[in-house]
């Protein structure tokens, strides 16, 4: 988790500029500690940014299992878990529903992946899909639905 936060911090700093704070120079070098903290909080990724990444992992998870790439499927689950944990930090108002999602959404996958069982996986994946949409509904985003069978993964590992 610490590693993910460090990566997130440095990614945010490296990829996001704050024009409003560059009038008096580089706030990262000349700003007070409070100004630095305030600016970093402003550029933390929102739920929509993290959910775009989550959607890509969702697609890759499905296709990894469908292709029998179980280790890659397990990796996608780990990354999805990290994204939700990051969301809980960067968007505290979403922490309760994110925690509910973590408690429920992934629970059926360990057996499916250990057994390398597509049928078991499909059941776990449908449970995950429903958990995602339940969370979306609790956060006033019920209009965001997910396909039961994503069209294609986006990773070169799946080509």
What does this structure look like?
With 159 residues, the protein is mostly helical. The chain folds into 2 domains: 42 residues, no CATH class; 112 residues, Four Helix Bundle (Hemerythrin (Met), subunit A) (Up-down Bundle). Helices cover 69% and strands 0% of the residues. It is built from 8 helices and no strands. The protein is elongated.
Overview features:
159 residues, mainly alpha, Four Helix Bundle (Hemerythrin (Met), subunit A), 8 helices, 0% strand, elongated
| Share of helical residues | 55-70%
* Unreliable runs: 17-22
- Class by helix and strand content? mainly alpha
Q: Write down the overall geometry.
A: elongated
Radius of gyration: 18 Å
Briefly note the CATH topology name of the largest domain: Four Helix Bundle (Hemerythrin (Met), subunit A)
**Strand coverage percent:** under 5%
Total beta-strand segments: 0
What does the average pLDDT come to? 89
How many domains comprise the coordinates? 2
CATH class of the largest domain: Mainly Alpha
CATH architecture of the largest domain: Up-down Bundle
Give the SSE string: HHHHHHHH
